[in-house]
Write a structure and sequence with these properties.
Shape of chain A: globular
Order of helices and strands of chain A: EEEHEEHEHHHEHEHEEHHHEEH
Main location (chain A): membrane
Helix content of chain B: 25-40%
Number of strands of chain B: 12
Shape of chain B: globular
Radius of gyration of chain A: 22 Å
Number of helices of chain A: 11
Number of helices of chain B: 12
Oligomer: heterodimer
Membrane topology (chain A): Peripheral membrane protein
InterPro entries (chain A): AAA+_ATPase, ABC_transp_ATP-bind, ABC_transporter-like_ATP-bd, ABC_transporter-like_CS, Oligopep_ABC_C, P-loop_NTPase
Largest sheet of chain A: 8 strands, mixed
Radius of gyration of chain B: 21 Å
Order of helices and strands of chain B: EEEHEEHEHHHHEHEHEEHHHHEE
Pfam family, one (chain A): ABC_tran
Strand order of the largest sheet of chain B: 6-7-8-3-9-10-12-11
Strand order of the largest sheet of chain A: 6-7-8-3-9-10-12-11
GO molecular function, one term (chain A): ATP binding
Largest sheet of chain B: 8 strands, mixed
Strand content of chain A: 15-25%
Amino acid sequence: MSSPLLDVQDLKKHFPIKGGFFGGVTGHVYAVDGISFHINKGETLSLVGESGCGKSTVGKAILKLFPITAGQVVLDGKRIDDMSSSVLRPLRRRMQVVFQDPFSSLNPRMRVRDILAEPIHNFGLARSGAELEEKVGKLMDTVRLPRDAVNRWPHEFSGGQRQRIGIARALAAEPDLIICDEAVSALDVSVKAQIVNLLQELQERLGLALLFISHDLAIVEHMTHRVAVMYLGKIAEVAPKRSLFAAPKHPYTEALLSAVPVPMPGKARERVILKGDVPSPINPPKGCRFHTRCPYAFDRCRVEEPPLRPVPTALEAGHLAACHLHDLSADRNPLAVAKGQALLAV
Amino acid sequence: MAEPLLVVENLQTHFRTPDGINRAVDGVSFHVNAGETVAIVGESGCGKSVTSMSILRLIPEPPGKIAGSIRFQGKDLLKLSEPEMRAIRGNEISMIFQEPMTSLNPVLNIGRQIGETLRLHQGLSARDAEAKAVEMLKLVGIPEPGRRVREYPHQLSGGMRQRVMIAIALACNPKLLIADEPTTALDVTIQAQILELMRGLKNTVGAAIVLITHDLGVVAEVAERVVVMYAGKKVEEAPVVELFNTPRHPYTQGLLGSMPKLGSSLTGTETRLAEIPGLVPSLKQKIPGCVFASRCPHATDLCVKVAPALEEKAPRHVAACHYALKEGAIAA
């Protein structure tokens, strides 16, 4: 098997909290606390979870938008987390990002042409002015915007069109991996469908790998090959799509699936409604981080943190979960059976 | 039959702007029966929030202008004086807003904020109001209400703040509750808690609910009847099961088709999402024909020239489309 395009090992990012009289460090936000995953070439991995679970921090840490606390990030066989920024620079071309808010992620003082030409110019991807112009024109075709719109300013476009410009800018560097951080969350339903279709098409045509960070499980299921579910800075479960949706193996995933409202009125569904709120990442619970809200928690969960490991009862290979339930016999493990159909009412 | 609790007729809310009149809501009619949950759905800018604000007359006039009639328990709210209107707001009709972070006052404890409506409308003393506030917090499922009542909004999580908003809204036993995107700002597991709470409270309190949302999943979970709005007009209205099973208007069909269905990997129905091409038209120009004609796959000359009237296509199911047949399908 070929090596993965991106390999993340035991990544940690702790943000210091400054306070007190002398402005010393009084604690840490354990935003990402030891996660490992990989993305193959041309594959979509989705990172899902609720606000504050650390999914966006993972994206930014991979892009090295800030230094990481521990762990390593390997891009195509080269370790990039300890590179100096000048060494990393040419490699940055291979990883691009599309942000959530198309209103604040485009420079309002740059014309579309300049927004798209900047990465091409930066990475020396065009040898002449004519070639640059041709590349910009092609990018506009790719995201299905009219070529003559390159002379316009970002404010002249709607949200969906701006997101297309954001995608074109990411493509301009001819990357292998695009990190989409809630890239469709701010869009209206009908426009969201346009952008989702565009991303899928581009992936197939250009063989891009996507790290799709989202809280919208229906979109994730539609787009992705594999899913990683995060909770309080840890990966709770990672699995191929069908295996995860048909037979979730972590109680948190089960609750997430059952919580998503589905547009099918009157359908009976199995409900798992979680009690309480997500605990603070400043002081995460001991043992399993989910035990304070887990409907199945038992004594061991409160003291011992479960490792992320393959689940024997999973539908497909490569299905990992961090849960002690899978050490119990099948009759005592509520997640031994495939519950997806009952949860999603399909 | 007695008149419904709320009857909105030909509501027009227009705003004067430097570059023309913005027809945010343009001739919308619907009604809400006592104890019923009606959802108003549509995308950003379709006028759903302006409709709800118009019912409570929260639109500043000028630049806004509300015309038509809004009859609540037989009284036309648009003809009431401001003091009469104030006696209705928060008392007989109350509202929950989307942003629980910004709609609570950060410098007052939550007991004061719940008690405020009670003291104003029901003349309770400060002490009685606080006792009632504790009771309300218990009703909306906040643990340790006796301690929480003295806390400030920043000490509560997003889900808790939305529970407090619901407690404030329900404090005076309103007949009608308007919920404007009540769960949009919340995470899914918290959204599930709040929807569960709203369903439960509806049975105990018995208020009618107007739910404003863009999320068809939420609509399917709580609404009994649905009004679909597009570009300031009502384009379709039907009981909830009917609407999801046999949508008649091409816009509703497009909306439902453009949503990915959760569970698609199990049923093997992972198809390309249907797109609605193009953009919502500007509301500043008068559109002579059907408002959806510019994006509709079935539009003809007739649609561009003549605005379709709302017609009953099936029992209790109306749609504004020249071609929506009684059988549900669009004539090709």
